Amino acid sequence: MRSFEDSLAWQRAMELNVLVDQALAESRNWGFKDQLFRAALSICNNLAEGYEMPTGPHQLKYLWIAKGSCNEVCSMLILAKRRGYFPDEMIERMLGLQDETGKLIRTYIQHKSKGWGKIPGAMAFLGFWFNLTTPWFLR
Predict the structure, then answer these.
(1) Which domain holds residue 102?
(2) Does pLDDT of 124 surpass 70?
């Protein structure tokens, strides 16, 4: 990939963001509208931000954040479906894009982290390093 824009996950996340923006155009539930829009936008932005990070672990951090935002969008769309905020067809399209985006991000995560799993004790070391370098109130 020459740019984050070449990433299929970023492209799908951008499509999802456009659909979310269209769905929310008439919404008056400002809290829900703001949260869903920000979560959808976070997927794209974290994929873009992580692309230029200098190391694999830095890139993984942003991929995991994007994956978390993807799950947040899913949760909010399930709530929107239960509450009848949007037409079912629109929600199904958004959930489909969210699911595809999440699977692509998970594949990227597995690809970026595969080397660590092959080194004996690497995950224990990473956990130990995390505990040493992260302030206690952020753990």
Answers:
(1) 4-138
(2) no
